Amino acid sequence: MGAVQSSPLVLTTADACFIPAASALLPPRASSHVAKPRSNSSLSGRIRRVDEILEPPVSKFTSPVAQNPIFPRCLALKCVRSEMEAKNDETAEKPTLGFVEIDQGLIDQMVYDALVWSSLHGLVVGDRNVNRSGKVPGVGLTHAPFALLPISFPESQFREACELAPIFNELVDRVSLDGKFLQDSLSRTKKVDAFTSRLLDIHSKMMEINKKDEIRLGLHRSDYMLDEQTKLLLQIELNTISSSFSGLGCLVSELHRSLLSHYGETLGLDPRRIPTNAAVSHYAEALAKAWIEFNNLKATVLVVVQTEERNMYDQHWLSSVLRERHNVRSIRKTLAEIDAEGELQPDGTLLVGGVPVAVIYFRAGYTPNDYPSESEWRARLLMEESSAIKCPSISYHLAGTKKIQQELAKPNVLERFLENKEDIAKIRKCFAGLWSLEDPHIVGKAIESPELFVMKPQREGGGNNIYGDDVRETLLRLQREGSEENAAYILMQRIFPSISPTTLIRDGICYKDHAMSELGIYGAYLRNKENVIVNEQCGYLMRTKISSSNEGGVASGFAVLDSLYLT
Amino acid sequence: MGAVQSSPLVLTTADACFIPAASALLPPRASSHVAKPRSNSSLSGRIRRVDEILEPPVSKFTSPVAQNPIFPRCLALKCVRSEMEAKNDETAEKPTLGFVEIDQGLIDQMVYDALVWSSLHGLVVGDRNVNRSGKVPGVGLTHAPFALLPISFPESQFREACELAPIFNELVDRVSLDGKFLQDSLSRTKKVDAFTSRLLDIHSKMMEINKKDEIRLGLHRSDYMLDEQTKLLLQIELNTISSSFSGLGCLVSELHRSLLSHYGETLGLDPRRIPTNAAVSHYAEALAKAWIEFNNLKATVLVVVQTEERNMYDQHWLSSVLRERHNVRSIRKTLAEIDAEGELQPDGTLLVGGVPVAVIYFRAGYTPNDYPSESEWRARLLMEESSAIKCPSISYHLAGTKKIQQELAKPNVLERFLENKEDIAKIRKCFAGLWSLEDPHIVGKAIESPELFVMKPQREGGGNNIYGDDVRETLLRLQREGSEENAAYILMQRIFPSISPTTLIRDGICYKDHAMSELGIYGAYLRNKENVIVNEQCGYLMRTKISSSNEGGVASGFAVLDSLYLT
Questions:
Q1: Residues in contact with B51: Cβ distance below 8 Å, sequence separation at least 6, in sequence order
Q2: Cβ neighbours, 10 Å, residue B325
Q3: Which end of chain B has less Cβ packing within 10 Å, N or C?
Q4: Tell me, what's the ipTM?
Q5: Structural domain boundaries in chain B
Q6: Are B510 and B107 in contact (CB under 8 A)?
């Protein structure tokens, strides 16, 4: 979603910290799957680890890279071992996939091979140091940041996450049909969040004219973290708009398989334990099937893009597969261009530059930044009014908001949308603690122990979540002011994933550090008036982030693309 | 060879001009395939055309790009039409593949698609504006410069060129075995060219110790131009060392096929008329077969590289296919590194960093610049002394020099090396006029009409050829000085290829101009003591260069990778 879309360098996996699980302090939840309190021994074990990780501060670690626009050549391909990592060598866990036990020469060789592989196989992004790299394809390319090896992940939880995808797909569809539920749930948010308010206005207009989309396409990605202590798979968020990295994510799985096919024997790793990842093929197929449903041979797929996009190759991979394998063309337009070039025909057909549009695929429009003027909102309304298949429709978009995520976590709400009790139980099991700020009990808890919560604003775009002492201060301010601004946030339990020694490569430079990972599972859903045509899990995305914490306890550092190794 | 190796931006196709064919002025040659004098009418037609092309000077045309290190964004993806091109619209020929008759919107769309395709499929080089791009893979990437569409080329001449490959392969092998011929032919060159002299020294040493390479591997590329008037295929040079672009060249053929599969119908072009180009596969297979001949499972392929190489991805493609398809590993070392890390075992096995070397594949070592100190010459000698299969051996390297090319063009010399009369006739047919400066008659002609000749120094590296008035001045100086320096050059007939309106893309910017092309045909040859194991034509490389001429009449501008469309 927003956070991970605008730049491959903002791969947020921010919903984590390195302190004991919140569950011990939390009120009973509707589900029986609440994380269990940790024993003192494991607790103290964790705390000791955190102390180590907290020093030196992250700024020291990132400075040689972050402060130099052209990175020092001497660092290239020489793995930079942070002081922190060196300190932790003795105490760190030693998983098979970490760097601790791998010979440095072998790592250098693998890094070199991986960088070559990335260049030859299109695992690339626009280089932020090159001006035109977000506008013109083919120039200012650099490899996408990636982890050298896949992260180990328990097979059962991976399967569990995959099984959830079709249920979430259906849930989104059902919720999207309940316009009143969306409007009611978001009514307080509407008052304090201008962006959500504009989306709701469009949604209201569609309700007023009783516009129904009979063909509905969803390309979602549900993001999870694995709680280290309980091994529970907990959902971070559900992206219903602009789910990114289906293209590059597949490539990283391939890269890792290629590396293990050459080095696996030496490392004692089996490339077949990296699950097949065909996210981009499935996404392309779903788009193609939607195009077929639209039933106009002259029509195109309209990809709504930002004016600058350094992650364009991820998008181009999808368009390329769509064209090469399904012979469906796509055009790329910004919201402003759609406002300028778009028109509705009397039958509702959207023409852009005279070309009819079958499917509108949004890779922009999820953040207020994408709507700098009324022009962009006119474009969004125009598209919503059209007969084109929106991916997502305004209803799907709203169904993926954090407030709706929190509403769905309330007792007995899932039951309004799903019948199958097993499905409901499966979904509920993956919900972390989610609360509205209207709950004085939980607000009190959060002021008391802010480190156990994340405050999430409705607003998208990444980097907006509130952590640590800022949670307390913000909550106290909101209480003092007694304003309705509290409706702009939800509170979420912070999740405690395991951290492992990891080798991360960015800008041709290799870093060894402790990192945590977030698993995304892609889902595709397509239906027409009569039938569900597609409802499937499509592949996965692993993102790994350096787990260095600054003094506020907030996870920071950069994130990279990764894949997983089933254990 | 040297000229095209060091940077993808130096794709020399310099042996051409835009004035009448030299053949009318030349003495009778041994072959009956000399270009016929042109009729007056065609001559005047050509001259008129040249006048048009000569203005405005090329500096005006290239200035907006060449003088700005970060190219103006407004130029990106907007085809820059030179004044010259605009002027020529009415008079220019209108071949199917030119830009004249193609709608600008369609060209823009194709350029965009082509740039995306290049990024996703590894048609990339290091960006000269990024410091680390020649050292670290994965950073500072940009698309390789390419022509938007293939160049039309007559099928019969293409087949002819393909048929020549195995004959040239065999010729090189035979010549390489005649040490005395090499030494004698190059004896005068040796006195005035230090580089050739050092190569000959190594060659002499090998003769002294009677070292014979029983397994011999050649990966050659013979470069041709098609004389416009006579439609004769004339050889420019035969590369026996470091024949580049087998990797990227194949990709350009694929790029063009992909474009024609989408736009061919609109353009009236059939993608099947682009010949299959499997150069990189054949090269990899030949290297793998050589590796098998060496018969040491622990041995590697040693790729000798320059310290900086922006064309590294072309090389990586070859290594990658070698590894993925044949499971043969390669290591990359500079000559200095080989000097430092290399050692010979008593049985002649070359170890580099302790790893035995089966095949030495040179992508460096063809230019004096690659030997800045004695260290590099020690490495070259060490490799030559080893039992590793050299690609090329010092003999193969010498057999590809310009002086040997000129010697082979003398009457009755080919007959010393080849028996088959048909083969001899085929080879002779492709020889342009080639002369030693010892011939006073031809020197007189060249002083009289310098525009009809190219003076080629033995020295490699590109940009060293002498054209136009400089030919006259250099020849007069050599006459005055009466020195032996004339042995450092050969004289070659200048060739007059056809020029066509072409769309060229470099740095994400599209240029429309008139351009001429050079066809390279790859050949692979492998034999052991008993048998020829491989002797084949492997694929092709088309390079297209803006044909703008400066006041000296020298072809200049930049060259791009291209493919061909059989007519």
A1: none
A2: 12
A3: C
A4: 0.84
A5: 2-566
A6: yes
